[in-house]
Fold this sequence. Notes:
It contains 3 helices and no strands. The chain has one domain. The longest helix has 41 residues. It is mostly helical.
Amino acid sequence: MVAAIPAAAATLVKGLGLKCNCRNGFAGRELQLHWGRALRPYMKILVILFALCIVASLFSALYFLVRDRGQGERTVRALTVRVALSIALFALLMLGFHFGLITGKIQ
């Protein structure tokens, strides 16, 4: 099973039109770099959208707090959505850094 992974990676690299300079046809690092460069702008857009949704949820909670005078459940729901979005954004950032979509360098 483990031997099939390098062959599958090499086939995928050839299918994408990339050159494989690794021995034994294994091009996992080139594949990771290619996808990292290709998906980096989308990752930035996704992070910005998450941040905007978090701020929108925060302001909707403020609106519901003022409108319901602290008696309704809508404020709690909006804040719950904000916390869930914040946790999802944190996980997205960690996964993006792990898979090379987010680098430690400012570009």
